[in-house]
Amino acid sequence: MGPSRLRVSYVACTLGALLCAAAPSARAESGPRKPVVVSGSATNAGGVISTSVEGAVIELPSRAHLRVAPNSSLRVFPLPQLLALTPGPRTWTWSFALQSGRVDVELPKAGRNAVLATMGKLSAIVTAGHAAFRVDGGEAISANVEGDVRTLLNDHWQTVPLGWLSTLSKEDPNALPKPGLAGPTLTSAQRIWFAPSETVAMHGFRWARVAGADSYELRLRRISDGKVIDQRTTKSPDWEAGLAPAEPGRYSVALRSIDARGMEGSWSPESEVRVIGVVLPPGGYSTEQAIYIGVGQQVQFTNTAGLEMTYLGAGRYFPAAQGAGLYRGQKTVIGFRMPGVLDTAIARLEPRGIYADVQIGPHRALWPRDPISIDIQLKSQNGSEIPSFLQVVPTVTVGLEPVDVNFEQEGNTLHAIVPPSSKPGPWILRVDVADQFGVALGHDFLEIASQVRKVPPAVQIVTPAKPSSASPAHGATPRGPAAEPPVASRN
């Protein structure tokens, strides 16, 4: 697969010259002229870059990155060289000499660029992807993590396959490429998680141990764009804690083994995992325990294509539907699974048990004597906390006409006073309570009678005057008006 013998000799000579000096004319035509430390910290003493416990990341003008591990030392050459690595135009190649520690090379596939790593007698060319290099005592390692890597030893090129490594040591003086540790096999049954809110942290991953592995690495990647969401390393063959919160969608999980030297093996085949999302109806809300909706409402599930579903009492699985509501208005448990997989993700739907307790009084109100008091309190049927987003919208009417009432709110309680109406009664005052989405929460009404008014009598009784000392003697006939019998006069 490598170039001809003549070309190999030419490249070998070029690499030897490159380690001594770079031609001033060999200069990148774009980007920064020198490698730059973009994160971490490093010291430069006589051209040798050393890192402390923090490590460092060096960006090359070709946009390649050198991730230098803590307590490592290397020499990065400030200029590139044009090398005939493949048939056709030559390749701009930046180089470094690793003296101790570890360096990971990450090289974008765009353009004709390469990175040359030398570790004593062993050299390696990276033309794309991710490669790792390590020098420890008398041992030099070149590993193809996820890229294109070739090694050069004694004028002999060797391709390092994906997941393989080449080690130059007393035990292997020819640095023959060998397979790295095999990737672990995922054994946990759970493949689906349900996100009642915006995200969920996937957890409970388990896998079989690999002989020779000192630790393991787990990677979660989004299938749609390949972005790595989370990557964790652990000594044990499981990860029970939650990974980084993931939005609803399709993801893949891969595992790889790491030996005692810190060199990674190849990734295991990716296993698909799924996060199901939910779109709530107006006024619906969710907690870690359940989804709460009104009777007659439905939720819409996302990322259920190709899944199966069931509900409590169905007794069978069927192709997953996008929507679901409360079965007979009661608590409904729905399960989702991948076909042929026993693990099930559970979604619990429950009636939204939020209601308004409306009190109107006094019960025997009379107008215009009594102002009417209205008290509204939000309550939960199961004693759970009232959602903070819920807003109370009361409507007050007298007869068929709405009344503008000023409510005062304190927590989940509202209070208002309705003054007597000036219009003729009797009256019916009604209070209807809904939330901001129009979902009814409660109501009550009060019949108000007219106050009976006291009307003065239509006839006035005039009593006779008491006789005075000048009254006539007993038996004498009285004279004048006083002697007249009392008469009824009209007021």
Quick recap:
The chain has one helix and 38 strands.
**Helix amount, in percent?**
under 10%
Which regions are unreliable across 5 or more consecutive residues at pLDDT < 50? 1-32, 487-491
The whole-angstrom Rg is 44 Å
Largest pleated sheet: 12 strands, mixed
Overall number of domains: 3
Inertia-based shape:
elongated
CATH topology of the largest domain: Jelly Rolls
Strand content of the residues, in percent? over 45%
Overall pLDDT metric: 86
Terminal-residue CA separation: 132 Å
Q: Helix and strand layout, with pairings?
A:
Elements: H1 5-20, E1 36-45, E2 48-59, E3 65-68, E4 73-76, E5 81-83, E6 91-107, E7 113-119, E8 122-136, E9 139-153, E10 156-160, E11 164-168, E12 177-179, E13 192-194, E14 205-206, E15 215-222, E16 228-234, E17 238-239, E18 249-258, E19 271-279, E20 285-286, E21 291-293, E22 298-302, E23 308-311, E24 318-319, E25 323-325, E26 332-337, E27 345-351, E28 354-361, E29 366-367, E30 372-380, E31 392-398, E32 401-402, E33 408-410, E34 413-418, E35 427-435, E36 440-450, E37 459-460, E38 489-490
Parallel strand pairs: 6-7, 13-19, 21-27, 29-36
Antiparallel strand pairs: 1-2, 2-3, 2-4, 3-6, 4-6, 5-6, 6-8, 7-8, 8-9, 9-10, 9-11, 11-12, 14-17, 15-16, 15-18, 18-19, 19-22, 20-21, 22-25, 23-24, 23-26, 26-27, 28-30, 30-34, 31-32, 31-35, 33-34, 35-36, 37-38
Can you put this structure into words, describing what you see?
The chain is mostly beta strands. It has three domains: about 5-180, Jelly Rolls (Sandwich), CATH 2.60.120; about 180-350, Immunoglobulin-like, CATH 2.60.40.2550; about 355-450, Immunoglobulin-like. It has one helix and 38 strands. The strands form seven sheets. Strands 1, 2, 3, 4, 5, 6, 7, 8, 9, 10, 11 and 12 form a twelve-stranded mixed β-sheet that branches. Strands 13, 15, 16, 18, 19, 22 and 25 form a seven-stranded mixed β-sheet that branches. Strand 11 (about 165-170) and strand 12 form a beta hairpin. The longest helix is centred in the N-terminal third of the chain and has 16 residues, at about 5-20. It is elongated, with a radius of gyration of 44 Å. Residues about 1-30 and about 485-490 have low confidence and may be disordered.
